[in-house]
Amino acid sequence: MNVKTNHPEQCQKALSGLKNVYDPEIDLNVVDLGLIYEILFSDEPKKVNCLMTLSTQFCPMGESIVDSVKYSLESNFPESEVEVTLTFDPPWTADCISEEGRAHLNS
After folding, report:
1. Most buried pick, 40, 52, 81, 105, via CB within 10 A?
2. pTM value?
3. Which CATH number belongs to the domain containing residue 101 in this structure?
4. DSSP assignment, residue 107?
5. Between the CA of residue 80 and those of 60, 92, 96, 106, what are the distances in Å?
6. Mean pLDDT, 10 residues at a time, over the chain (107 residues)?
């Protein structure tokens, strides 16, 4: 799980909150699934930009997952404008799943 960021401490705070956002079809959070690619922070204006993907372009829960990611970031950074951008480049693969996520799925 290599999330690109320009502010490691703030990113850890963001990822901690995002561990509560689950893909309901897979029963794993978006962080351990490897769906979060990048979280960037700016001070002027205060903004959080999140670049993420889904396990498939046609994920039936995609809109709900993106909305939940945005809500989580807004909750953790209420003073900031939050923008979540969806990308499929690079495409998600099972190799993106963290070791912790793999252990959960195999239990």
Report:
1. 52
2. 0.95
3. 3.30.300.130
4. -
5. 29, 28, 28, 38
6. 92 97 94 98 96 94 97 97 97 94 89
